[in-house]
């Protein structure tokens, strides 16, 4: 099976996926829950997969998220510090331009540029804040650090951004995505227990095949380490 076919297969097996974009350069498969927002970019191949009526997939505002006990108080403090840091940022570019450039950079295998664009975008307190915080977190996770200081900062920023993606989520899909990204960020910081809890919370909202696979992999790894 070709990588594109594998990407399509993953999308078909994911209840939240209506579209995918595959980037051959970095071999990333991007799943999308809204095919109307699918954009082509240089170096990427985009496709649509619709397995059920979109009329039956109405977006429902589920309100503010509940408190999660597995996200430690010191991590919340880190997130608040990041928010204060971002409050002082300014950009001559519009929010729309920053979002577009961030998404394009991510799809073209340039997560560092994507991270900077999303970082500026979230400083503008946009209406679709959860989606942009999620983009910031994912690009921070994907950026290769040039030194230990950057590694620590990117991991902190990814964790903090995932927290804000969760706090500003208002749909099941947004919240499930934020929790799955939070799990990845916590896992990268060797916090496997809260990472598993974040994966479980995500799966309780949306039964995603890709998230379940990541959850099972981490659970098996944690069991192996403790044996």
UniProtKB/TrEMBL annotation:
GO biological process terms held by the UniProt record: proteolysis
InterPro entries per the UniProt record, alphabetical: Apple (IPR000177), Pan_app (IPR003609), TPR-like_helical_dom_sf (IPR011990)
GO cellular component: extracellular region
Keyword Repeat: yes
Span of domain Apple: 1-55
Keyword NADP part of the UniProt annotation: no
UniProt keywords, alphabetically: Disulfide bond, Repeat
Parts forming coiled coils: none
Gene3D superfamilies recorded: Hepatocyte Growth Factor, Tetratricopeptide repeat domain
Protein name (record): Apple domain-containing protein
């Amino acid at each position: 099976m070709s990588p594109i076919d594998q990407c399509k297969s993953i999308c078909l097996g994911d209840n939240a996926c209506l579209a995918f974009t595959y980037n051959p350069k970095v071999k990333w498969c991007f799943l999308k829950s809204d095919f109307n927002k699918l954009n082509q970019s240089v170096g990427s191949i985009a496709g649509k997969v619709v397995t059920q009526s979109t009329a039956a997939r109405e977006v429902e505002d589920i309100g503010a998220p509940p408190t999660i006990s597995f996200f430690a108080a010191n991590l919340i403090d880190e997130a608040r510090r990041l928010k204060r840091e971002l409050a002082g940022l300014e950009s001559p570019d519009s929010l729309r331009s920053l979002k577009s450039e961030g998404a394009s950079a991510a799809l073209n295998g340039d997560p560092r540029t994507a991270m900077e664009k999303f970082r500026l975008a979230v400083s503008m307190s946009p209406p679709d804040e959860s989606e942009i915080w999620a983009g910031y977190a994912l690009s921070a996770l994907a950026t290769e650090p040039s030194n230990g200081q950057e590694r620590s900062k990117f991991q902190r920023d990814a964790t903090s951004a995932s927290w804000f993606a969760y706090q500003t989520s208002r749909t099941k899909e947004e919240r499930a995505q934020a929790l799955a990204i939070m799990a990845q960020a916590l896992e990268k910081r060797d916090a496997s227990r809260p990472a598993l809890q974040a994966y479980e919370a995500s799966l309780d909202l949306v039964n995603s095949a890709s998230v379940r696979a990541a959850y099972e992999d981490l659970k098996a790894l944690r069991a192996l380490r403790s044996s």
